[in-house]
Structure formats: C-alpha cells, structure tokens
Amino acid sequence: MELKITDLQVGLDLPEIRKQVTQEDVNRYAKASGDFNPIHIDEEFARKTPAGGTIAHGMLILAYVSQMMTAAFEENWLTGGRFNVRFKAPARPGDVVTVRGKVEKVQESDGQVTVSCSVLCSNQKSEAVITGEAIVRIPVKG
Questions:
Q1: How do residues 95-136 score in pLDDT, each as one tens digit?
Q2: Where are the domains of the chain?
C-alpha cells in the first residue's frame, strides 16, 4: 500500500506490522549478518547472563520497522529513507512485536517532499523496544 504524496498529512497512521520473534529467526539473522554473539544464539550461555536468555539482534527488529516503511513508501523508502532511533529494550524469542508509525511532518522544497514519521516498536507487554524517527524523501513528479 504505497502512500501517494496527496495522501500524506500530519497524523496519518502507517500500516502496522506485527511479528512473532523466534529463535529460528534470530539464528538465521546471525548467519546472514555474521554476528554469532552467544547472547543471541546460545541459550545456555544467555540464561546465565543478566539478560536471562537469548535476545534478538537489534538490527533484526529494526528490519521490521524498515518493512513497515517499505510497505508505506516502497521504492522511495529504499532509495531515500533513513532512521534516527533508540533501542530501548531487547526483544526476545517468543515476543510478539508490533511496529507502528505516524506521519509527523510533511515539507516540500527543492522538488521533493520530506516526510518525518515517528516510529515505535513495542512488545506484547506494550514495552517500547525501539523508538524514534524515520525520514523519507520523495521526489515530486512534474
């Protein structure tokens, strides 16, 4: 569902995404990224840490936020998007994370529209996992 420039207005909700985090997802991300930190993939090791168990890579969860932005802005997000986010809490296997976004600012200048969106990724307990801003630039077609 790509948003058209004429659809963009402050307060517009972006398409919500909900994902269940699995250890299999975390292991696949470790393989793809080369990040085999035992806090992510070794359940026995992770249980003995203050985390109390394995946690998902922050960038895996941020990819879910990017998926929401891609659903809303398609190619424009992929070519002209960026994040300014904070990782607030870990996501764990078994968590269900919900990604939400809202258009906060729409500004047109120099042949493009810059859209600033607040983003929030939270777990099933409504605890924030990632908060911040996503900014996408969209060329105005003449």
A1: 999 999 999 999 998 889 999 999 999 999 999 999 999 999
A2: 5-139
For residue 80 the two structure tokens come to: 């002209």
DSSP reduced 3-state for 17: strand
The predicted-structure confidence for 39-83, as pLDDT tens digits, reads as follows 999 999 999 999 999 999 999 999 999 999 999 999 999 998 999
Question: Which tokens belong to 86?
Answer: 């904070």
Spatial distance between the Cα atoms of 22 and 92, rounded to a whole number of angstroms: 8
In the chain, the N- to C-terminal Cα span, in Å, equals 22
Q: Is 102 helix (H, G, I), strand (E, B) or coil?
A: strand
Domain 5-139 in this protein, CATH class? alpha beta
Predicted TM-score of the model (pTM): 0.90
Structure tokens at 31: 């393989």
Q: Cα–Cα distance between 56 and 60 in angstroms, integer?
A: 7
